[in-house]
Amino acid sequence: MYKKALIPAAGRGARLDRPNTPKPLVDVGGRPIIFHLLKRLEEVGVEHAVIVVGYEGKKIERQLAAHPDFNMKIELVENAEWEKGLASSLLAARGAFAGSDEPFLLAMADHLFDAELVAKMAALEIGDDQIVSMLVDRDTERIYDIDAAVKLALKHDKVVDAGRHIENFQGIDAGLFACKPAVFDALEEVLEGTDGEPVDLTAGLAKLGAAQKVGAAYVDGALWFDIDTPPMMIRAEMAMRKQHRVQTVLRPEFADASDVKTKKYTFTTGKPHETDVYVQRGFVRNPDRLQLIPDASASSPVYVFTDTKVNSIYGDDFVGGLKKMGYDVRRVVMAEGEEAKTLENYTRLVEHVIGEGIDERSILISLGGGAVCNVCGFLASTLYRGIGLVHVPTTLMAQCDAAISHKQGVNGARGKNLVGSYYPPISIAVDVEVLATLEDWLIPDGLSEVVKHALGQDPEYLQYLLDYDGSIHDPDFLETVVRKNIELKCELMAVDPKEYREGMVLQYGHTVGHPIEFLSAYDLNHGQSVGIGMMIAARVSRLLGGCGDDIVELHERLIKQYKLPTRIPASIDIDDIMSMMRYNKRYLTEGTRMALVDGPGSLWSVDGDYVIPVSDAVLREAIKQTY
After folding, report:
1. Tens of pLDDT along 130-177?
2. From CA 5, how far away is CA 467, in angstroms rounded?
3. pLDDT for 308-323, tens place per residue?
């Protein structure tokens, strides 16, 4: 019914604030907002779209010219006075509709609509006594930013008033209209008495509404988004990804055949797991100071897994001390670091332990850094479908992060920690005295996880780290951060052990950090890679509007203060990083999702969701800025 459409796309979109990007070109669902709108209009038969541009109009023009998918005619009209408001931009297009009485669709360039809403408006016949029919959402409870929304007073399916400050309102302007050309006259009358002040479309709607010239069509539960702010952009992205996931397959009516009866049964399993975490100096050399093995396992075979370096320093004291107490202890020595975290090594260790012999109450003890904890933990979770596990972490990284967890696992051929499980240790015992024998580089490596918790979880902890001006090797400082990190991690483990909500802070900096670590062939250690990953994450948040430049600068200051890199080595290719993103555990077919911050010590959440969807374009730009 409508062959033409008018799309005002001249404004800057300051509330969304994407640097150097006009709001219609903000990427949602894999392409700019305005492209989604044009596709919807084309689907309902629009043959000619008039787009008014102003702020960064040349960018919009170039994007449209480069897009091959539209079969409709696209006409650009430039409004040099776009800062005078939406009414001015609409009037700038008046010439494109001159000489015709045909009605047209008017759609906001920063809105996304379900197909059914555009189809509804395209089938709408404007009444003889009306000049405009507009899409109205009467479910005002679901409007996220009600203060900024254009509110509508309704009477008998007509809009009688419009404005942001109406107190007695029954609906919200949804940004899609069917208009007769006479709408331009009403806008011109409104502009005449303004002395050049910016005027919104709302003033024209209010004028026409008072004259009973505006009809209402209703949203009735369908989805639409006014993408004015970063949270609304994230909501739209989440909705589009969810919709894509559901619509990927045909969804038949799952009804029972007439000759088949189905009975559904349900069972619920599991109970809370309690893990004790001890912090004590000196027990690694004197294991008789702390009970690590429960009495119920006293006579069962006990395995101590360690690496060559830790074994050379502490192995004899630790294993010998347990043997003196009468335990049946076997020592298993692995290679150091990531070299041990392979499926091949896991398989070899499974056969070794089973060959040596265990029973259902056997205990596996990890004595080493994160790699030893991960491998030993994965073994414990899978042998006999789960036997006792105790972590004794010996690196700052493990004491602050890797060991204080249910996460156990090994690396795959395409990335880190691709195979593993969530499995609770019986206990975790931390001896900060062993940090004195660490190589110097392992202290900044572990402090990356300290910085992570501060930036994403605790503003006071963040300030403590910013203010600290002593040596990062000072034993008292190290004990302070170990204890604080354990405290913070215990808080998260209590409410979100699998890191779906608040626990996503544990993934901060890791989403891109892991690919960088892997692509460096582990020349960059884990902490260095996470430091770079946090810089990228901060820039992603800035590009999405979640934070400002001050947060990016704060990241750079803190990460450098604790001797970690902030730049990606030139030897690592950006295309390789992007290709590796699909092997992150938070990746879905619809794209990358990340933990991001929106302020000092604050993880960004939208509607209670802490996993923020990120487009490839934004991620690539953030990575480029970090070389």
Report:
1. 999 999 999 988 887 888 899 999 999 999 999 988 989 999 999 999
2. 58
3. 999 999 999 999 999 9
With CA atoms as reference, report the closest residue to 423 among 498, 360, 354, 350: 498
- Cα-based distances in Å from 23 to 14, 20, 114, 545, 546: 8, 10, 19, 12, 15
Residue with tokens 């992205």, as numbered in its chain: 237
Place of tokens 């702010």: 229
d(CA 427, CA 377): 12
Q: What is the pairing mode between strands 4-9 and 48-53?
A: parallel
Mean pLDDT over the full length of the chain: 91
Under a CB-based contact definition with an 8 Å cutoff, are residues 429 and 280 in contact?
A: yes
Helix 526-544 vs helix 442-457: crossing angle, to nearest 10: 30
| 181-200 average pLDDT score | 79
Q: How far apart are the first and last CA of the chain?
A: 52
Q: Compute the distance between CA of residue 402 and CA of residue 371 in angstroms, rounded to an integer.
A: 8
Provide the token pair at 245: 């996931």
Instruction: Please report, for residues 226, 227, 348, 479, the alpha-carbon distance to residue 148 in angstroms, rounded to integers and kept in the order given.
Output: 11, 12, 62, 49
* Token duo for residue 491: 């808080």
Whole-number pLDDT of residue 492: 87
Q: Which residues touch 248 (CB under 8 Å, ≥6 apart)?
A: 589
Q: Which two tokens stand for residue 27?
A: 């990427």
The whole-angstrom separation of Cα 549 and Cα 600 is: 12
pLDDT for res 583:
73
Helix (H) or strand (E) holding 550: helix 549-561
3-state SS, residue 59: helix
What is the residue type of 420? G
Picking from 178, 182, 87, 180, the residue whose alpha carbon sits closest to that of residue 134 is 178
- C-alpha separations of 338 from 269, 341, 342, 372, 417 in Å: 35, 5, 8, 9, 10
Between CA 505 and CA 485 the distance in angstroms is 12
| Mean pLDDT computed over 212-225 | 94
Can you give the pTM of this predicted structure? 0.80
The whole-angstrom separation of Cα 510 and Cα 529 is 8
